[in-house]
Write a structure and sequence with these properties.
Helices cover 81% and strands 0% of the residues. The protein has 199 residues and is mainly alpha-helical.
Amino acid sequence: MRNKTTREQIVDAADQLIYRQGFEHTSFAHIANAVGISRGNFYYHFKSKDDILDAVINARLADRQTMLARWEAEGTSPLARIRNFIDILTVNGEKIKRYGCPIGTLSSELAKLNHSAQRQANRLFTLFRTWLRRQFVALGRETDADALALHLLARSQGVATMANAFQDDAFVQQEVRQMYEWLDTISANTMVHQSKSGN
């Protein structure tokens, strides 16, 4: 595996710091110290915090696209792939409890700051919404696939927010089980409808 370039190291460090302490409270000095480089070397790669933010958002998009592509390749059915999305709440449970959802927290912060990158950050939500919609279509829910995708995305964000607020593992496990049950019900009802209609 190749060593990461200085620029990639800066983006990785900035990504973690922005997630943990927010964009507004992350400075050039914080990032330079985390990477262990001089300010001059830092400025060679990035001229402003907004440049770093753009790079972080693009890195997150690329990372999530890779993850979704892996789920597509490994998932045996749309049901299994949607479950992978739900499982984020437990797979990343400790980080979510401590810092919240990296996508939700960044979007909220940029909205409060009225930052020009807010629309760019929202592409992360759009990526998941589009992917989930495609899974619900594959499940046989063409007419309401987008509504189902948006509902699941909104519910997972709500659970992440409550997990961060209350630090309650049992609550998260309960919500994940309920989302599984909701998904299984949707799948079963779709199969019954298809069977009755002869599809």
